[in-house]
Amino acid sequence: MASLVKKFSLCILLVAFVVSSSEASSYIYLSEDSLVNFIKIKDRNLQDKKIVDYIKLRFQQGPENTIPEGKTEVYEKLDKYQVDDREALKYFIESTVQRRLSKLPEAETAMVKAIDQASKAKADFLIYSFISHLAFIQTDRGNPIGAIYSYGLAQKQALKLNEPLLQVYLNINISDLYYKLNLYSQSLYYLNLAFRIKEENKIKDDRFYTIISYNKAENFFRRRNLDSLQQCHKELMGPNNKSYKLFTYQNRTAYYISILKHHYAEAITQIKELQANKKYVHNDLEKQNLADAFYLNGQADSATTIANQLLVLPYSANHPEIKHHLYELLGKIARDRGDYKLAAENFDLALKQSEESLNNTTQVGNASAQIKIDKIENTFTDTAEKYRRERLILILVSITTVFMFAVIALLYRSARQKRHYEKLLYDNKKNELAFINSHEVRKHLTNILGLVELMSESKDKKQEFLLVEKHLYDSANKLDEAIKNISDKLSD
Questions:
Q1: Partner of 230 at 20 to 30 A CA spacing, among 218, 287, 386, 483?
Q2: Which of 195, 215, 250 delimits the end of a domain?
Q3: How many angstroms separate the CA atoms of 134 and 153, rounded?
Q4: In 337-460, which residue ranges form alpha helices assigned H by DSSP?
Q5: What start and end residues bound the annotated signal peptide (predicted)?
């Protein structure tokens, strides 16, 4: 057993993010220490995403006989590393295992507990993921009302996370629920919405191209729209496709086309060959389609056998919409054989299933309308919040602008005053220097020039020099002092 688990851990596996008929794939690589590596991721939402993908791969896709040992191992790792959301993740594992074992009530109970733990821990991604999985379980249990309500809650959480990729997944899932209720227009609406979100947010993942094309093909087949079905089949055969179920999608839509072209014998051959092909992934409606092909090909006994086999299946695989179709088929076969009593009984049973289906559809419509109202309210709230933020930003910008103008005005005024005071100071110094120049410098300079001129006119220059020497020296000293005074004034 241990070696089997180890081999399983070391394999490169592909995991699908289940969206029923579409099954959007989310691929991850598992090594021996994958879980530990995911646990060590610091970003909480990213950590939760990786661990959830690991759990889905380990317990949805792995060998069933490794589940008990796998649970023990994962629980021990979550406890050992003190993972913040470990209690919620443990309930998620339990729910995943119970769903794998077709114990849907137990799976739903565990998932509700997981959601409660995630809500207490405010683990936003886990809340989104767990509510989405709850919707899957409710769909399996034939509870479309609960499923559509859960999808509505998941939508709110996806908007809160602001991750367009999650919104794409969610709209594909909602589309699949409407498809199962035979509400094809609504199903196509959500598929188109998923594609638009993908394109607007430039999500480069060709798997969505494949998933959306295939889901549209399912709707067009049920609506007997051959042209649109052929277009979807052509898209699935093109190069821009990525999905581990591409072989299944291509071959299933091929036999759909045969049925709508009334090539029933060819369709029967195609379905039987696919049932024997290990690459082909079967779905719940495969045998129903085969029964229809047998009936339309005139092989009523084969159609009756398959219909009766399907009617004894559990409710989880046999919702009112499916039973209505099967009882109606049996009624047509009995009518064609002239057994009108049996035909009436089968048509009556079909009518009862139709009433139950109609009741579910009506309630789903009410829930869906409420979801749209909630979405509009959320949009209005978001818009109001956006306007409130923009208003606050505008007020802050206005206040900042006024403050800046005030500061600029004060700086300008201060600069003007400074220039005015500097001019006054300059004028004052200029006048003072002019006064010194005219009254002191020129006075002493004039004295010196006069004494020099006096000496130059004297016949006895030596005698004259001795007489004026002291006056000349005094005047020169006073001139020097005056010049120094001007220099000091200029330095101030």
A1: 287
A2: 195
A3: 11
A4: 340-436, 442-457
A5: 1-24
Alpha carbon dihedral 442, 448, 449, 455, in 10-degree steps, equals 170
439 in any annotated domain = yes
Phi and psi, residue 26, nearest 5° = -130, 105
Query: What are the percentages of helix, strand and coil residues in the chain, rounded to 5?
Result: 80, 0, 20
Residue 361, in any domain of the structure: no
Q: Which residue, chain included where needed, has tokens 């330095």?
A: 491
Q: Which residue has the higher pLDDT, 482 or 409?
A: 409
Domain housing 94: 30-195
Per-residue pLDDT of 283-332, as tens digits, reads: 878 899 999 999 999 999 999 999 999 888 775 555 677 888 899 999 99
CA dist 46 and 261 (Å) reads: 48
CATH number of the domain to which 62 belongs: 1.25.40.10
Structure tokens at 479: 């001139």
DSSP readout, 67-93?
A: HHHHHHHHHHHHHHTT-TTHHHHHHHH
**Contact between residue 475 and residue 451 where contact means Cβ atoms under 8 Å apart:** yes
E strand segments, 141-197: none
Element (H, E) at 66: none
Beta pairing partners, 25: 16
Output the average pLDDT for the chain: 80
Q: Tell me the β-bridge partners of 27.
A: none
Q: Are 412 and 190 in contact (CB under 8 A)?
A: no
Flag whether 365 is in a domain: no
- The answer to whether residue 371 is domain-embedded is no
The two structure tokens encoding residue 25: 């794939």
**One-letter amino acid for residue 239 of the chain:** P
* pTM > 0.70: yes or no: no
Q: Could you say which of 137, 169, 195 is where a domain stops?
A: 195
Distance CA 125, CA 237 (A): 35
In the structure, how many helices (H) and strands (E) does the chain have? 20, 0
Average pLDDT over residues 17-44: 59
Cα 32 to Cα 73: distance, rounded to the nearest angstrom? 12
Residue whose structure tokens are 């589309």 = 175
Split into its structural domains, the chain has a count of 2
pLDDT mean over 219-232: 95
Q: Identify the burial level of 352 via C-beta atoms within 10 angstroms of its C-beta, where 0-12 means exposed, 13-18 middle and 19 or more buried.
A: middle
DSSP 268: H
Of 273, 265, 269, 274, which Cα lies nearest the Cα of 295?
Answer: 265
Max Cα-Cα span within the chain: 172
On whether the CB atoms of residues 121 and 85 are closer than 8 A, the answer is yes
Tell me which amino acid residue 206 is. Answer: D
467: tokens are: 């007489």
Angle at 181 between CA 175 and CA 185, to 5 degrees: 55
For 16, phi and psi rounded to 5 degrees? -105, 130
